[in-house]
């Protein structure tokens, strides 16, 4: 995203030379436009508050940043009834506040590297050996780690019942999103030459992924049937190679389907199925949890999902309950063996008494 767009969208950035300079560096380093946009939004929100409060952001203290954190955690959301869920019941969700703080923290890291500041007022939660009270330094905002929501079997069937009457494009997108555990961005960015129908494989290009890791993942035979039907239908819209999923609306006929259009489709189906928490990422969560339930190894699931670290994959292991179930089974085996041994001892004692 060109810097001029950032300055036009958030004028406050243009009034702070160091802020816009930092964002230009990230842009020149090739960060994804959506990442730059998120950084710009979070930093602009912080700088706006600094201007309202008469605070020089370069000289801001931890107390000033804490005031910035308090404000979004208590204010009502401007989206009102459109909000699907907010963890705290008021203000922004914990994950959103964490996300808004990231560009502020990185901006101060930049100022430290430039020699403008000596310390970062945002800080980060970290372990420091030798530090009192267990060595853990708490971040400004406690991080809440919650397991992703996945539908029950009955809820999943209810969703599919609603989706069965959808056009072939929407049905195959849902099937691929689950089969290959695709993120929304990866799904909508698929191209015709990413498919290998002969081996039922799909290539997820590095530039479309969150972590810039390319991977090749399979899809099921039933999804292959849906895909073949959609490709025949697609040929009636456009025979050109390129984006796989095309819009069929009057305004955007033959254009690539956008992320927002796909989100609206899934949201409409979720409302119709009375599953307001069902979102575009739910199919990915469900697939990875199912793989964990089937006993796939942690590193294999991470590779399939395109996770840079297995720490991201661990939540699906926890969500599946596999580790807990294994521990319970092993524990019960030991308890059972102990009880059998005690019963055997009882039988031995009884025989000795009869003798």
Automatic annotation (TrEMBL):
This is Site-specific recombinase XerD. Pfam families: Phage_integrase. Residues 146-329 form the Tyr recombinase domain. One of its GO terms (molecular function) is DNA binding. Residues 17-112 form the Core-binding (CB) domain. InterPro entries: CB, DNA_brk_join_enz, Integrase-like_cat_sf, Integrase_catalytic, Integrase_recombinase_N, Tyrosine_recombinase_XerCD. Keywords: DNA recombination, DNA-binding. It comes from the Bacteria. One of its GO terms (biological process) is DNA recombination. Gene3D superfamilies: 1.10.150.130, Intergrase catalytic core.
